[in-house]
Amino acid sequence: MTPEINPFDVQDRLHKYVALVQQKNNNYFRAMNFTFSAPPTITVDYGNKYAKVVKNDGLNGAQSVHSFINMSNGDILKGNWKTPVRTKKGLAVRGNIFADDLGADRVNEHGPNYLRR
Fold first, then answer.
1. Sequence-distant contacts of 101-104: CB under 8 A, at least 24 apart
2. What pLDDT band is residue 7 in, cutting at 50, 70 and 90?
3. CA–CA distance, 56 with 40 (Å, rounded to integer)
4. pTM to 2 decimals?
5. In this predicted structure, what is the pLDDT of residue 1?
6. For residue 37, with 0-12 CB atoms within 10 Å meaning exposed, 13-18 middle and 19 or more buried, which class applies?
7. Contact, 100 vs 20, CB < 8 A?
8. How many Cα atoms occupy the beta-carbon half-sphere of 56 within 13 Å?
């Protein structure tokens, strides 16, 4: 049986996760010496079940999905623009925001990592 997670705890961890993703993008732009624009700004779009973590490009206004967060348990999910990705085994879970490192080793500046076979 899964313990009940307080929605305020999910919200708090989600804000920390967004800050982590923003820092990864900032570090990537600095390491690659990109000077043509500022790093993408990371925002969250809330749905009923999932929160969509979005990268907003400051150069041309383009948006892309970084990841989805399951608001009931904190799972980090790969996704396309509309929904989390489903595989034959279920949702493409890559980590959890309740991990000690907020799932930092499971995501990069572009999105959740692919699973190694």
1. 102/13, 102/16, 102/17, 102/20, 103/17, 103/76, 104/20, 104/24
2. low
3. 5
4. 0.89
5. 43
6. exposed
7. no
8. 10
Strand partners, 86: 91
Q: What is the token pair recorded at 29? A: 């732009």
Mean pLDDT estimate for the chain: 90
Record the tokens describing residue 76, joined without a space.
């980090």
Q: Where are the alpha helices (DSSP H) in the chain?
A: 7-31
* The pLDDT of residue 116: 63
For residue 75, count other CB atoms closer than 10 A to its CB. 21
CA 23, 95, 16, 80 dihedral sign is: positive
Answer yes or no: are the C-beta atoms of 111 and 67 closer than 8 Å. yes
Length of the chain: 117
Give residue-wise pLDDT tens across range 60-99. Answer: 889 999 999 999 999 999 999 999 998 888 898 999 999 9
Q: Domain boundaries in the chain?
A: 7-104
Could you give the maximum distance between any two Cα atoms of the chain, in Å? 50
Residue 69: name the closest of 1, 2, 7 by CA. Answer: 7
